[in-house]
Amino acid sequence: MSDSTPATPRPTTTVKVALLGAGNVGAEVARILLDHGTEMAARVGAPLELAGIAVRDLAARRTVELPEELFTTDAEALIDAADVVIELTGGIEPARSRILRALHAGKPVISGNKALIARHGRQLQDAADDAGVPLSYEAAVAGAIPIVRPMADSLAGDRVDRVLGIMNGTTNYILDQMDTTGAQFDDALAEAQRLGYAEADPTADVEGHDAAAKAAILASLAFHSTYTIDDVYCRGITGVTAEDVAAAAEAGYVIKLLAVCERCAGGVNLRVTPTMIPREHPLAGVHGAYNAVFVEAANAGSLMFYGAGAGGAPTASAVLGDFVSAARRLVLGAPAQGAEPHAQLPAVPMDDVRTSFSITLTVQDRLGVLARIAQVFADHGVSIHTMQQKDDPHGSTQRSEIRLVTHRGSNKDLVATVESLRELPFVEDVTGVIRVEHAD
Length: 440
Description:
By secondary structure, the protein is of the alpha/beta class. Helices cover 37% and strands 26% of the residues. It has 14 helices and 17 strands. The strands form two sheets. Strands 7, 8, 9, 10, 11, 12, 13, 14, 15, 16 and 17 form an eleven-stranded mixed beta sheet that branches. Helix 7 (169-181) crosses helix 8. The protein is elongated, with a radius of gyration of 24 Å. It comes from Kocuria oceani.
């Protein structure tokens, strides 16, 4: 549907809102709508009514006290009675079916469901385009940080070359604690759980899945193509040790779980990995549970978006920003922004990426070791940027620790180099294999 196709005006004096989900974010959205609805209505141009809140369990404890009469377990009936639908339930189903139900009925949808958008975003966007209504998901990428609309609108006339993001507050808190206090991973994770930054089951965060979903969404916008979470190479932080963090600090780096989406080899590579970045890089100063997205564009240059990446109230702010925009269009009878042309740049596999590795080796301290290691790198066409030999940190006089940072090379060659190093008879351990940004 083109931008010029008019939407069907709604013959209503009140915009009725269906809220699906009353978790931390959903409860805050409901609170703000109830407490500040009159002020928000002035921006929309019509009175607002929270028609109901669909939940699975009516008796569940909420983080915010809300009127009991608003709650229902009949999400479908609530959708059918509403003008705008806000979906904050998470997961794939029944969220996907409910969003499609709303879109097929010509109702704008606002979602914070990163897992769903990262897997089925194209299907949902096509349904929205066919109906001529907006599908908005600012809250699905970086919490309160406004990045979806700037990427889709403000940078639409530019060429984005690379996006780097700290997109998960839990992992950033853990790595920041390891860097600033010397904490071990398990201790930093336990503290994150105690403070409410990490779930009882932190798998989606610490294994990188949460950041990977966000990377797929953001890359789709940045490069005008369609990517899913399956296109993202993903490695979490569970293997990062306090020793790795300390070694990085000594070399002038900090380790972050970094989402990188960049043009290369005729397409775009998407990856989420623990990455060493120089202390002087703006992303190195992102502390605690905060998030940041660093964009490199051909004409705009370097841009950074920073703020709270999670939390009920901050994320609710992003949800309601989308809501006000969608509701205003509805009241005015304005058309939704139609589907944009897609470049369809292919997802580039990791083998074709040029990157840099930091590698730590524990080796037997004997003549010819350094020369043999250097030969392995040469055999694979990989150049060593820096190399430092130290005494064994465990006190053995028979072993040494060697730390190397490579120049940029193909990921395939770098991985092959690491495997060859593991096979050397005098190499007892290969640890701390971490990607490095801007090592050259």
